UniProtKB/TrEMBL annotation:
Pfam families linked to this entry: MFS_1 (PF07690)
Keywords: Cell membrane, Membrane, Transmembrane, Transmembrane helix, Transport
Subcellular location: Cell membrane
Protein name per UniProt: Major facilitator superfamily (MFS) profile domain-containing protein
Main location: membrane
PANTHER family linked to this entry: BLR6921 PROTEIN, MAJOR FACILITATOR SUPERFAMILY MULTIDRUG TRANSPORTER MFSC
UniProt keyword Glycosyltransferase, yes or no: no
InterPro entries in UniProt: MFS, MFS_dom, MFS_trans_sf, Sugar_transporter_CS
PROSITE patterns according to UniProt: MFS, SUGAR_TRANSPORT_1
Membrane topology value: Multi-pass membrane protein
Keyword Hydrolase: no
């Protein structure tokens, strides 16, 4: 058989009949992760009153999840390869659900923060397998585009939906249900995964343990330094020390990645201006948006006296905007002009954040 025949055979191989169910499975898993990036925002004032944690600690309920998720994504990709994609999805979903139950039952701040970090860690295990499953389940470009369009819609709308759902659960049930609800979502996702996602042979590569430790500890130190700046000031020894240590650890991470045979993050990836620029844009988006969501939650509930449901509904324009924006952008991603969407989008977000910075206690909605 010639190379052409082999190529034709590959292209004409029958599509997986369960591929759309597989899409539903991984989209549900990623929806769960996306929801938990924001669902606790609206619940924070209620959780703080219930558990009695200090104002300086409340941001860690959000940050612990983001740190566990973001700092372990690279490690999660390598571990999910070694476990096998399907098994990584199932283990990640089960672990996420277990951490959610423990968080919902938390009797003190330490347990809640630990379970939030665990949620992020299990989310970091699932996300690489979600993306790999989409790529291999939909090899044909037209269908792959549709599949990633659905994935993008789910990810784009999940943060806004998390705010709305968090308000409803907090007011009509209890803030703890913002954690318990993940059990239901995980159960649905596990059933779909078992039914539709095909097992794939594990791929074993050396784990860059020094790089993983340097990246994770460096990010934790930086975030801790920024957090201490709020209470101790930018000139405090603990603030400066944490920031210096964090920066040094991340510099060490770059040095290690340049030398190891199987790096977690090949430096050629970030040296590419398109990828590097995209990562910088995502970082800027996350820093601006999540900080705004955090402070707006307390502004609306503690300053304006809104109920959790009214606060969730107050974020409804954001939810609608996210969903509409994703639907508008997805069909245009394949065009050369798509690169213009990034700076224009960031400028619009910056303008919105600047206007929010003008809010006063008696500002109108």
């Amino acid at each position: 058989m010639t190379t052409t025949d082999l190529s034709r055979t590959t292209v004409e191989a029958p599509a997986d009949p369960r591929r759309w169910w597989a899409l539903a499975a991984v989209a549900t898993l990623q929806l769960m992760v996306g929801l938990d990036l924001t669902i606790m925002n609206i619940a924070l004032p209620s959780a703080q009153r219930d558990l009695g944690f200090a104002d300086a600690d409340r941001q860690w309920v959000i940050t612990a999840f983001a740190l566990g998720y973001g700092s372990l994504l690279l490690v999660g990709g390598r571990v999910s390869e070694a476990m096998g994609r399907r098994r990584a999805l199932l283990v990640g979903a089960a672990g996420f659900a277990a951490a959610s139950v423990a968080g919902g039952l938390a009797g003190d701040t330490g347990v809640l923060l630990a379970t939030r970090a665990a949620q992020g860690a299990f989310g970091a295990l699932m996300t690489p397998s979600v993306l790999a499953t989409l790529s291999t389940t939909f090899p044909a470009p037209p269908e792959r585009g549709k599949a990633f369009g659905v994935y993008g819609t789910v990810m784009g709308s999940s943060s806004g939906l998390g705010l709305l759902l968090g308000g409803l659960l907090t007011q009509y049930l209890d803030w703890r249900w913002c954690m318990f609800v993940n059990v239901v979502v995980a159960a649905v996702a596990v059933g779909l995964t078992v039914y539709a996602v095909r097992p794939v042979s594990p791929v074993r590569r050396p784990l860059d343990l020094p790089g993983a430790l340097l990246a994770s500890l460096g990010l934790v130190a930086l975030v801790y330094g920024f957090a201490r700046a709020e209470t101790d000031g930018w000139g405090a020894g603990v603030t400066v020390g944490a920031l210096v240590v964090g920066a040094a650890l991340l510099v060490g991470f770059v040095a290690v990645e340049a030398r190891v045979a199987s790096p977690l993050l090949p430096l050629r990836v970030v040296r590419d201006r398109h990828r590097g620029g995209s990562y910088l844009a995502v970082l800027s988006l996350a820093v601006g948006m999540f900080a705004a969501l955090f402070f707006l939650t307390f502004y609306l509930q503690d300053v304006r006296g809104w109920s959790p449901v009214r606060t969730g509904l107050g974020f409804l324009p954001l939810t609608v905007g996210l969903m509409a924006g994703v639907r508008f952008v997805s069909p245009r991603l394949a065009r050369p002009s798509a690169v213009l969407l990034i700076p224009s989008g960031l400028l619009v977000i910056a303008a919105g954040l600047a206007l929010l910075g003008l809010l006063h206690a008696d500002s109108g909605y």
